[in-house]
Amino acid sequence: MPATPTSFAALRTELRTPPVACIVPDGVFDAFGWCASDTLEWRRPATWSADTDVTADNPPGMAFVFRGPHARSFLPHELARLHVHGLGLGDEWALAPYGIDDATDELYERRARPGELLWLAAAHLGALVWGLHDWAHFHSHGPFVERAWTELQCDATALAWLWNNRAAVGLGEGGWERVRGSVLGVAAGRFADEGKRFDSAWLAADRVRGLVGDGQPR
């Protein structure tokens, strides 16, 4: 969906985030796809650039902003404007950066649809990629005892959604491939940290792109 203005400084885009297949072993998740994802509201600065790097570091310029007061009653929160600049944010609250795991658990336990409570503010490409990764977490619950496998699924889902929305994001096939390569390196590092074998075929381009339709206009 084309971006639409929300203020003098921000553009709003509705990203298509349909359900994807589970590519990791049984038992990694105890409730994969407990809530079927459909769309994610993304707001970005009008000066958006898709040329920023994607690294393993927790990205600045990203926040899941609350829709109204309900989420504040059970999710850790901080002022959104402390984390994302250039969107004209005022007194809006957002999920605290350390609260991703808490949100994954609480949303599942309460059966609270993420899209009804949160929208994503992401000021650059790295923030968008890891925002999509966290959006995948929010829709599939797991005990998180298999960290590398859990994160691999969310990596694959985020890459599939990014491919699905590449026109809206302003990302060409080469740019998407650059992101995939960066995410591949991060995923391999997690498996190495756990002393487990990693196979790059798990995030092969054709396999990831096949998890959803391409999302492009026909």
Describe this protein's structure:
This protein has 218 residues and is of the alpha+beta class. It has one domain. Helix content is 36%, strand content 15%. The strands form two sheets. The protein has a five-stranded mixed sheet. α1 runs parallel beside α3 and α3 (125-139) crosses α4 (147-164). The chain is globular and about 45 Å long. It starts with a strand and ends in a 9-residue tail after the last helix.
List keywords for this structure.
single chain; alpha+beta; two-stranded antiparallel ribbon; disordered C terminus
If you average the pLDDT, what whole number results? 92
Query: N- to C-terminal separation?
Result: 13 Å
Helix content: 25-40%
Q: If helices are DSSP runs of H or I spanning 4 or more residues, what is the number of helices?
A: 7
Identify the strand order in the major beta sheet. 1-2-3-7-4
Radius of gyration: 16 Å
Unreliable spans: 214-218
Domain unit count: 1
How much strand content do the residues show? 5-15%
Order of SSEs, N→C?
EEEEEEHHEHHHHH
Sketch the major β-sheet.
Answer: 5 strands, mixed
The beta-strand count equals 7
Q: How would you sum up the global shape? A: globular
Summing up helix and strand content along with how strands pair, one would put the structural category as: alpha+beta
